[in-house]
Specification:
single chain; alpha+beta; Gyrase A, domain 2; Elongation Factor Tu (Ef-tu), domain 3; 2 domains
Length: 334
């Protein structure tokens, strides 16, 4: 895709709507009458509090408080659907199955049960409303973050998930693989241009959304990635890794050794992931994701830095290029 085409598509998504597939995600279905209480004991957010049609963002931790994965939890009414990075799906599936004892819980791999089109942008709700049947007028626009509902397209069932981790809020439309091409085509006719993976990453980084195995991994405590306000409930019961999180929050006053921050860079060069960040001659961290931002007309990056250098306005260098620590998000949805 040329720079001109990329910029035009970017503006279209930010002002109207765009679409892309979500082949990077795995899906796990958890059913049974004990599904919510079972997951509530494992995940960081309050799954028991979810009513049908609601969802939440959460993390699954080790006993040491480090991340196994982040994930989205959707209570569909008859089953809970977990959406998580595809490259950790099998490991998480095995762990979840391992801890089922006498509970009425069944766990299954639903990744290949659906194909998924993400529809994002300010006009996503109106476009989806044109395509989908069985949905009350205004229901899609009123759907809260992580909300979900069932709809129909061309005789096929569709699960609609309200998402924001794409950078530009919108929906994931889960449908049988035999119908996904027709759905994507219809969305295109309605004006949702196809967005390539590079531009998808631009939207994510501009929004400051960390991605597992890019900006956080199995060595990360959620507080280091800054996801605790969205992913961790302070009022629910026990979960795996809770003791470590509480100790950091209450005894350590939330102080961790490193934190994920935004960096705004001078010049035009986009640093590679893994590029070291320095303060004078001191090595203080590394870049985790970086893109050229059309909105800011300069390179931006997510980086994990030593806690002494995470305040907005702090000046650092990235591969000899001047940069400044910047509050996230870089760009808010219009």
């Amino acid at each position: 895709m040329t720079t001109e085409h990329n910029t035009a598509t970017y503006e279209l998504v930010r002002r109207h709507a765009g679409q892309f597939s979500r082949t990077d995600l795995g899906r796990i279905a958890v059913s049974g009458t004990d599904r919510a209480s079972y997951l509530n004991g494992l995940l960081t957010n309050d799954v028991v509090a979810l009513a049908a049609g609601q969802g939440c963002y959460a993390a699954y931790l080790t006993a040491q408080g480090r991340m196994i994965t982040d994930l989205h939890v959707y209570e569909l009414g008859d089953v809970i659907l977990l959406t998580l990075p595809r490259d950790v799906k099998d490991a998480v599936l095995a762990k979840l199955d391992q801890f089922v004892f006498s509970e009425d819980v069944k766990i299954g791999d639903a990744t290949d049960s659906f194909a998924c089109v993400a529809l994002v942008g300010p006009d996503a709700a109106s476009i989806a409303g044109q395509m989908l049947g069985g949905v009350a007028p205004g229901a899609l626009a009123a759907l809260p973050e992580h909300g979900n509902l069932r709809a129909r397209f061309d005789g096929q069932d569709v699960i609609v998930l309200r998402v924001s981790d794409t950078g530009e809020p919108g929906f994931e439309l889960l449908i049988d693989a035999t119908a996904v091409t027709a759905l994507a085509s219809a969305l295109g006719v309605a004006g949702a241009r196809l967005v390539d993976p590079e531009l998808v990453d631009v939207l994510r980084v501009e929004a400051g959304v960390p991605k597992f195995h890019h900006d956080m991994d199995e060595d990360t405590i959620p507080l280091e990635a800054g996801i605790e306000p969205r992913a961790i409930s302070s009022t629910k019961g026990c979960y795996v890794g809770q003791e470590v999180i509480i100790r950091v929050l209450h005894r350590g006053h939330g102080r961790v050794a490193r934190r994920l921050v935004g960096l705004t860079l001078e010049g035009v060069a986009v640093p590679a992931a893994g590029t070291m960040v320095h303060a004078q001659s001191r090595e203080i961290g590394r870049v985790t994701s970086a893109v050229a931002s059309p909105a800011l007309n300069r390179p931006i990056a997510l980086a994990t830095l030593h806690r002494d250098f995470t305040e907005a306005g702090t000046r650092v260098t990235v591969d000899a290029t001047d940069a400044i620590v910047t509050a996230l998000p870089f760009v808010s949805p219009r």
